[in-house]
Amino acid sequence: MNYLAPSILAADFCELGAQLDLIEQSGVQCLHVDVMDGMFVPSISFGMPVLACVRKRTKLFLDVHMMVERPERYVDEFMRLGADSITIHVEACDCIYKTLERIRSLGGKRGIAINPETPIEHVFPYLENVDMVLVMTVHPGFGGQSYIPECLDKIRSLRSEIHKKGLSVDVEIDGGVRLENLKENLDAGANVIVTGSAVFQGDMAHNIKEFQKIMNAGQ
Q: Under CATH, which architecture does the 3-216 domain have?
């Protein structure tokens, strides 16, 4: 099944509550929450207080993307505050298996993310231990970047490996995804689509409807 996951990194935080309500009313099931520490990536975004407020406001599935060094330090607290899934970066964690198991033991869905410059094969050893793989299709840390076309091959290779192993693992993409390149990413094997400005800029309800139209076709 295909899922749209709007990224609140692109939201207007003065209007965040109203925007969350609109997203939920539009039939979206998942919300993407980017946590950045200024170390693993250059930017600093938001952390625990924002997650706690979002959790109080919405019943949406909260997909927390940890762009932080040593994410294992924060798993317990983010789960306690309402995360439904936590995705850690293969490049940022020294105890990947242990951290994934900790997320599972706390009742969360487990994700592993990979940067554009990292070979996709680096996540293959963890496929049996995750619910989702996030393929970054821009360099993490900043919104509004252009999609990196070479990532399509990584998505195809990942989906092929998941199929070969007979697994049920979602493939999420994040970065530069717009209506114009959505279908080719779906065709390559992505089924969880993170997008920020393409949803939050302009008429949000219309933007969501247009994404859903393409994502629901052929399902």
A: Alpha-Beta Barrel (3.20)
Amino acid in the structure at residue 43: S
Distance CA 72, CA 54 (A): 22
CA angle 57, 61, 64 (to 5 degrees): 95
Task: State residue 145's pLDDT score.
Answer: 76
Of 207, 216, 218, the C-alpha closest to 180 is 207
Q: The pTM is what?
A: 0.95
Q: Where are the alpha helices (DSSP H) in the chain?
A: 16-25, 48-57, 75-80, 96-105, 151-164, 179-188, 197-200, 204-216
Supply the residues annotated as catalytic.
34, 174
Domain ranges of the chain: 3-216
Higher pLDDT, 45 or 127: 127
Residue 185, pLDDT > 90, answer yes
